[in-house]
Amino acid sequence: MIPAAGRGVRLGPGAPKALRALGGTPMLIHAVRAMAASRGVSLVVVVAPPDGAGEVKSLLDAHALPERTDFLVVPGGETRQESVRLGLDALPPEYDIVLVHDAARPLVPVDTVDAVIDAVREGAPAVVPAVPLADTVKQVEPAAAPGEPEPVVATPERARLRAVQTPQGFDRATLVRAHGTVTDDVTDDASMVERLGLAVVVVPGHEEAFKVTRPLDLVLAEAVLARRRLNDGF
Ligand code: CTP
Ligand code: MG
Fold first, then answer.
1. How far apart are CA 212 and CA 144, in angstroms?
2. Residue 64: its pLDDT value, please?
3. Does the CB atom of residue 52 touch ligand 1 within 6 A?
4. Is 17 in contact with 103 (CB distance < 8 Å)?
5. Which ligand ends up closest to the CA of 46?
6. HSE, side-chain direction, 13 A CA sphere, residue 113
7. pLDDT at 230
8. So where are the chain's domains?
9. Does ligand 1 come within 6 angstroms of the Cβ of 85?
């Protein structure tokens, strides 16, 4: 499943983020192809902007996918969590494993997708791809008043921290239960499974699975695409 219903406020004004072009092709199409590149993926459910399901369906019809891959488009919701739940509701009964992948991570390599699928098949109820951090992370207290400096309260040991990416993989029943039980606001799906007290495991992510969030990320994504084209040409 690909949640693609966000507006992309941090990217600045323009079309919904998933529909912005990268190398002349909408980001969403890159993300769908990246998932469909895995032999383990037979259906891609795209959660479209609430008023953009028709447009997304035409886009998918216009861009070729591998023969073995089917797709479905459903309108999304106000929050990412709601969008994922709407995607889950639309999932046909025969699928036991669900991957949730941000449309905003259009360049994830197929090896990362396969590693997540393999770990779920081997029995993990929830799997996240992740990478070590480059920056040291500080936990802060909110500033006493707006404009005041923020006091640091802790510095977690960097070697034990991971930056988490997508696709995150789940045993379907576990993800459905998490979405039916956990109501707090979360920024990723695996944390809902953690709240249930179930094990979540990490597999290696990839630097090219970064999330396009701010304008500079578009520059990086274009550069990665240009490098791939160059490498494919030789
Ligand atoms: N998403 C979604 N439905 C929402 C909000 C987000 O399906 N109501 C999706 C986005 O389309 C994106 C993924 O969740 O693929 C990750 O979210 P994020 O990177 O935060 O994207 P946006 O919410 O679009 O960006 P911003 O927060 O800057 O507005
Ligand atoms: Mg967002």
1. 32
2. 84
3. no
4. yes
5. 1
6. 25
7. 93
8. 2-141+150-232
9. no
Starting from the CA of residue 75, give the closest ligand. Answer: 1
What is the C-alpha to C-alpha distance for residues 100 and 80, in angstroms, rounded to an integer? 11
C-beta 10 within 6 A of ligand 1 = yes
Question: Residues of the chain whose pLDDT is less than 70?
Answer: 234
Of the chain, the end-to-end C-alpha distance in Å amounts to 33
Decide: 45 in ligand 1 pocket, CB within 6 A.
no
Cβ of 104 closer than 6 Å to ligand 1, yes or no, is yes
C-alpha 50 – ligand 2 centre gap (Å): 15
| Separation of alpha carbons 99 and 144, rounded Å | 41
| C-alpha span between 207 and 141 (Å, rounded) | 30
What span, in angstroms and rounded, lies between the C-alpha atoms of 178 and 101?
Answer: 17
Q: What pLDDT is stored for residue 30 in this prediction? A: 98
Look up the CATH architecture of domain 2-141+150-232: Alpha-Beta Complex (3.90)
Burial 91-127 (b: 16+ CB within 10 A, else e): beeeeebbbbbbbbbbbbbbebbbbbbebbeeebbbb
Q: How far is the CA of 213 from the centre of ligand 2 (A)?
A: 9
Q: What are phi and psi of 173, to 5 degrees?
A: -60, -35
Q: Which stretch of DSSP H or E encloses residue 229? A: helix 215-232
Task: Please state, in angstroms and rounded to a whole number, the distance separating the CA atoms of residues 13 and 86.
Answer: 26
Ligand 1 pocket, 84 CB below 6 A? Answer: no
**231 alpha carbon to ligand 1 midpoint, in Å?**
31
